[in-house]
Amino acid sequence: MKKITAKACCALWIFVVLPHYCGGAVIRIVNGTDAFPGQFPHAVSLRYYKQHECGGSIIGSEWILTAAHCIYLDYINVLTILYGSINLRNGESPEGNTAEVADAYIHENYQPWGGYENDIGLLQLKQPIYITAYARPIALPPLSARTPSNQDATLVGWGYPQSDVLEVMEMLQFVALTIFPDNICQQYHGNNFSTTSHICAGVVGGGKGQCSGDSGGALTVNGMQYGIVSWSDKPCAITPGVLTRVATFREWIY
Questions:
Q1: Looking at 57, 119, 163, 182, which residue is catalytic?
Q2: Domains located in the chain, CATH noted
Q3: Out of 163, 197, 212, 215, which one is annotated catalytic?
Q4: I want to staple 68 with a disulfide (CB 3.0 to 4.6 A). Which of 83, 106, 159, 213 is the partner?
Q5: Active-site annotation holds for 69
Q6: Given 52, 69, 107, 198, the catalytic residue
Q7: Which residue windows are coiled coil (predicted)?
Q8: Is 215 considered catalytic here?
Q9: What is the pTM of this model?
């Protein structure tokens, strides 16, 4: 793992004024359902200046897995992690669980343009998370494990409910999607889709999927994380969303 200067897909002033619009792509959950407490204990919110920016996953008591484009190394001092809660408002109340970030890493070959290849990052926390039924690590696939295709999967996040609603959801959302075969993903996304770096997921006919605010969040199959939300076309959920293929980077993560 090599720590490098972040080249995020959006400059900081962009995400403060108009979050999550990156190179013409937007990231959030469309037509999701409210989660219940403890249903997705790996899910966390990355918050700059106490405002939700991205999702992430607990993979260890001191480690958060997210997308590289969610990490702004010059602003780690204003980044906190909300965990153990499905409600973003809890970050402003005594019952909220927040953690400060000690260090951050983005993949040394991350490309913040085109298809955003190698869009993966890690956050190391200053203090360990207290593992409970509401906050615990997600399992990751073995190195280079085959990502299941034509398989039911679950996406979670607090992102926008549709492209023209510029406000994240207060409650954590989840939606059932299908992981499509690589050849189908390439038909939708052409050369911007890398069979090594990416997977894609959505529903036949569109209408459900990721959008702004969901970046960095987890796509899981049977409780194992296979994808990290990276980018999608807009309007959201018309075509399958593109996610970082976790199995490719298993050795880099640990």
A1: 119
A2: 43-125 (2.40.10.10), 138-248 (2.40.10.10)
A3: 215
A4: 106
A5: yes
A6: 69
A7: none
A8: yes
A9: 0.86
